[in-house]
Every structure is written in C-alpha cells, then in structure tokens.
Specification:
40% of the residues lie in helices and 21% in strands. The protein is globular, with a radius of gyration of 18 Å. The longest helix is centred in the C-terminal third of the chain and has 15 residues, at 190-204. The model is unreliable at 122-126 (pLDDT under 50). The protein has helices spanning 11-23, 34-44, 60-68, 85-93, 105-117, 155-165, 174-182, 190-204; strands at 3-7, 27-31, 48-52, 75-79, 97-100, 129-132, 135-138, 143-146, 149-151, 214-217, 221-224. By secondary structure, the chain is an alpha/beta fold. The N and C termini lie far apart (42 Å).
Length: 227
Amino acid sequence: MPRVLLIEDDPSVREGVELGLRRRGHEVRTAPTGEAGLAALGEFRPDLLLLDLMLPGMNGVQVCRRVRESSQLPIIMLTARGDDFDVVVGLEAGADDYIVKPARTEVIEARIRAVLRRIEEPGTGRSAVEFHGELAIDRAGLTVAKAGERVALAPSELKLLLHLTAAPEQVFSRQQLLEHVWEHSYHGDARLVDACVRRLRNKIEDTPGEPRYIQTLRGFGYRFGPL
C-alpha cells in the first residue's frame, strides 16, 4: 500500500485521516507544520503527500513549491475552502489534485489511488517512443525529453500529455480531460485542467504564451499540435 505523508495542523483532522488510512493498510506519517513535514520527507520517503493548504508559518503553497524544486512526488491538497483563490495558487505551485474538507476516508483513498495510477499505468500499445517536434515521449518508460533533455513532470502533467498526444489534433473538452486524467466523473473543477496545462506549457513550450504544442480552442477545450 502507498506510504502517505500527511501535513495538517488541525489535530482532529490529522488524527481522523491518519486512522482512516491506516485502517485501509497505508503506512502514514503525520506532521503538524510545513517545516516538520519537509523534514520528514527525506526520512519517510512517502509515495504521496497530503498537504493542508492553510498551515501556520510556512503555508501549503510554500511547501508545495519547495517540494517541486527537487521532486515530482504526487501531491493532493486539503482545503476547507474549495472556491478559494488559494486553491488556484496551490495548483499552479504544482499540486496534482485537491480535496475539500471535511472528506470521508473513502473519498481520500479514491483520490490517492487515482493520482498514483497516473504514474503506474502501462503504455497504450503504441510505439514506445514517439517524436513530436523536439519532444520525445517514451510511453513504456513514462519519460519525456525536449531536445534531448529530460523533462521532469508531475503525475497529472504526464498523464495529461500522454492523453493529449494519444490523439493529436483531437479536441478534448475540460470535462473530458477531468474524467480521463483526474478520474472525476462528476462535473468537476476546470481549474485543475487549466492549471495543469499552464504548468505543462511552462515545461515543454519555448514560449508558453504562444504555445506550439498544447493549443487552446476557446469555448471547446485543448488539443495537441505541434504547429
């Protein structure tokens, strides 16, 4: 079972989530502050980080940015305010998904599995290495390179790129991408898609503001070029 590091300052939430995940077989380490959580990362080596957005001192967005400086560890944010501007900032900082508190353990467990499946799924049966302009995508090895240099992608970024490149020129709506990449079958939050696209463009485009690979069709969604 995946090892989970939970950074949460509210003792009741922290204990409830920890107990629920342990009952489902997860090994869980907890930390009450961002600083303590960062210190535990290297020692515990989790498979996924559950990160509260509103932490005292170093907040969740700052923790997320610090983690992304050196790691593509899957990150799910926990927030009590699902429509808060900070959610967008957290997604832009590199979080793969978010959950609004309070949330049942089965919901958290399902999101954990969905995020981890993005880096565990085998290739699609297509040629293992595909070339799209300067991009080389190894579907079997789940790696991406640009002009020969490896590009580090978070799980949601990689899954989004793999999905778009599986059908070049096909337009996908945000809802379709939510269902296929994030496995949100309900009417989900398009901010997840838009934030992930922006992060991905920053990593693979020469000029993110004038994208060559991931194109926006206003009112419809996104498609993969390249132009």
